């Protein structure tokens, strides 16, 4: 009993320590007069306002930035799921020459920093393809995620081979096997890939900043960075406005994790085979 109390106490303290910066950000976004000290985490009710959100929305279009971030992130997630599932299934279930070498290349891609590829990617996408200031130009470098390929491969490897053999005997082709047999059993992998992929493009700054010059095409992370560097000093409460922008940027990601966190637990993959 005592060990459980100690365990839960330690976990509670750790959770509060991790949540405190987010709470401090919300509190700072609601303050009329900025207080950057620790006492600012507990503002007086008379010092609370929502004008900081109005102030930053008047300088940058929060809704447009959120829409751009949503389109960018949605496109990346779509590519991640489609190509991740197809590649993971091919690497785990199908038998073909060069499969192990291909998987080794997938692992190798993960150790190459994206910053190393940024200049050739910019030349190719902006100059050769003419896709600067476009959603497709933002999405293409992230359309295939090697991490998602590895995740799906590992999940597909856990599936009993008897399921696929039985379906093949019944005349099912590989796409039918993938859609009707494999995918229903790897739903935790789908949700995991979505959640892990979401954070990257949603918070991505460097590539959208490089490929977009039109402010109406920039995701919220880029718009917020431009506000902090160029516009914030001219506002009445720069600290509060910056915190308000950060809250708007972080809120969708936090909400997504709170809603879907219970789906991280894998289902019993072996339940589909009797005996």
TrEMBL record:
Main location class: membrane
Transmembrane regions listed in the UniProt entry: 5-26, 71-94, 101-123, 135-156, 177-199, 239-260
Localization in the cell: Cell membrane
Pfam families: BPD_transp_1
Domain of life: Bacteria
Keywords, alphabetical: Cell membrane, Membrane, Transmembrane, Transmembrane helix, Transport
Keyword Transport found: yes
Gene3D superfamilies, alphabetized: MetI-like
InterPro entries: MetI-like, MetI-like_sf
UniProt keyword annotation of NAD present: no
Domain spans labelled ABC transmembrane type-1: 66-260
Membrane association type: Multi-pass membrane protein
Similarity comment: Belongs to the binding-protein-dependent transport system permease family.
Protein name (database record): Carbohydrate ABC transporter permease
Biological source species: Microbacterium algihabitans
């Amino acid at each position: 009993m005592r060990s459980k109390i100690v365990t839960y106490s330690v976990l509670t303290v750790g959770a509060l320590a991790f949540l405190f910066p987010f709470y401090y950000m919300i509190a700072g976004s609601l303050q009329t007069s900025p207080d950057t000290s620790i006492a600012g985490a507990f503002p007086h009710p008379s010092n609370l306002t929502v004008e900081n959100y109005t102030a930053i929305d008047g300088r940058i279009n929060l809704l447009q930035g959120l829409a751009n971030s949503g389109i960018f992130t949605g496109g990346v997630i779509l590519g991640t799921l489609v190509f991740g599932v197809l590649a993971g299934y091919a690497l785990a279930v199908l038998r073909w020459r060069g499969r192990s070498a291909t998987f080794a290349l997938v692992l190798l891609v993960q150790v190459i920093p994206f910053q190393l590829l940024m200049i050739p990617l910019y030349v190719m996408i902006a100059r050769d393809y003419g896709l600067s200031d476009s959603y497709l130009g933002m999405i293409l470098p992230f359309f295939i995620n090697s991490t998602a390929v590895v995740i799906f491969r590992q999940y597909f490897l856990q599936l009993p081979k008897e399921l696929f053999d039985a379906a093949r005997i019944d005349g099912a082709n590989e796409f039918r096997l993938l859609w009707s047999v494999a995918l229903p059993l790897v739903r935790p992998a789908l949700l995991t890939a979505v959640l892990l992929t979401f954070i990257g493009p949603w918070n991505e700054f460097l590539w959208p900043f490089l490929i977009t010059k039109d402010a109406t095409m920039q995701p919220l992370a880029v718009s917020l960075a431009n506000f902090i560097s160029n516009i914030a000093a001219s506002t009445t409460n720069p600290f509060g406005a910056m915190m308000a922008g950060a809250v708007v940027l972080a809120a969708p990601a936090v909400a997504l994790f709170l809603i879907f966190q219970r789906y991280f637990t894998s289902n019993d993959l072996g339940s589909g085979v009797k005996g």
